[in-house]
Specification:
It is a single chain. The chain is α/β, with parallel strands linked by helices and 336 residues long. The strands form two sheets. An eight-stranded mixed beta sheet has the order 8-9-10-7-11-12-13-14, with helices on one face. The protein has a six-stranded parallel beta sheet with strand order 3-2-1-4-5-6, with helices on both faces. Helix 6 runs antiparallel to helix 10 and helix 8 packs across helix 10. It starts with a helix and ends with a helix.
């Protein structure tokens, strides 16, 4: 395993053994608000609330597009967490009351959520994709605004945290030059939205396995099925820059119901995600070996909270990765 993944794995092994213990940050508990806490579309609000509290934060409020749904979400999350969670009229009012804002609403609301965090001067975890492809320039402006303000900003891309499984099942693989990355995901909806919903995942995984420069470029972007109602598609492209060209293939198969199959392969070495009881996650290699892993979403949330204390250089590097991902995301979709 890489040193970073090993450290994260060790931290979460301790959390699993002492599930009642909260991580303390300078004897304070960070407060977090969630924009889009319901399960109408994205559905991640309750899961994020759970992992933030298990990682040492406290969810204090929610906001959303509809007052009634927001109040209902506040009631449900209060029951889930065992303490009161307030409903706020809008993201701006919510952001004023917390240390970090989670933007978990549909993508068309992301810019407003980012602006609310900027206005309040608080950290932000934004659901993927960061912005719609058509709003790429506006997304890059927001990234720069967070940079200038010295605020923590992250995108909810979980798959890099699953590399612990690849390292365990294929030790030494990532010490070799990466020439190909293949991924299979199973979005709930067909057509172009299937690509829009999945592309950030494979791009973030690519960034985690290849040191891409800021000027990395796209080449040979194609898809196997451009039909507007396509239930299956393969998007292929090359990324040029850094240590050489990397061939990327994103296999998509519409799957409305859980469990949704997912796997990825680096240089042909593949690991398949397996979901067990109570959403226990493991990965299996093609020869039948398997390894249990901590939920990548939990790892991401834990890392985000730890980075509330990160230095400016670490935050700047994270912003550089988000900016590049926005450019690549918009670039791929523009060529399809």
């Amino acid at each position: 395993m890489s040193a970073i993944v090993t450290r994260l794995f060790e931290k979460f092994s301790l959390l699993a053994e002492r599930s009642e213990a909260f991580v303390k940050f300078d004897s304070t508990v960070p407060t977090v608000g969630i924009l889009g806490a319901g399960r109408t579309r994205q559905g991640l609000g309750p899961f994020l609330a759970n992992w933030f509290e298990k990682s040492g934060a406290r969810i204090t409020g929610v906001a959303g597009r509809d007052d009634t749904r927001t109040r209902n979400a506040a009631v449900e999350i209060s029951k889930q967490l065992g303490h009161d969670v307030s409903a706020y009229d809008n993201a701006v009012e919510l952001a004023k009351t917390v240390d970090a804002l989670v933007v978990a609403c549909p993508v068309e609301g992301h810019l407003a959520g980012l602006d609310a965090a900027l206005s309040a001067g608080v950290a932000c975890l934004c659901e993927k994709p960061f912005v719609q492809a058509a709003d790429a320039a506006l997304g890059l402006q927001r990234v720069e605004a967070f940079r200038q303000a010295g605020l923590l900003l992250a995108e909810n891309c979980q798959w890099p945290y699953a590399l612990q499984a690849l390292d365990a099942l294929h030790p030494g693989l990532r010490e070799q030059p990466v020439r190909s990355l293949t991924m299979r995901l199973s979005p709930a909806h067909p057509g172009r939205v299937m690509i829009e919903d999945s592309l950030s995942h494979v791009l973030s995984l690519l960034q985690a396995v290849v040191p891409l420069p800021a000027d990395a470029a796209l080449r040979s972007v194609v898809q196997s099925n451009p039909a507007p109602d396509a239930s299956a598609n393969v998007v292929r492209f090359e990324v040029v820059g850094g240590t050489g060209n990397v061939a990327v293939a994103l296999h998509l198969q519409c799957c409305p119901q859980q469990p949704r199959p997912a796997w990825f392969a680096v240089n042909g070495a593949r690991v398949d995600r397996q979901l067990g009881e109570n959403y226990a996650i493991s990965f299996a290699s093609e020869d039948g070996r398997s390894v249990n892993v901590q939920d990548p979403l939990h790892l991401l949330v834990y890392d985000f909270l730890a980075n509330l204390r990160a230095n400016q250089r670490e935050r700047t590097n994270a912003l550089d990765r988000i900016a590049l991902r926005i450019r690549l995301y918009a670039g791929v979709l523009a060529k399809l």
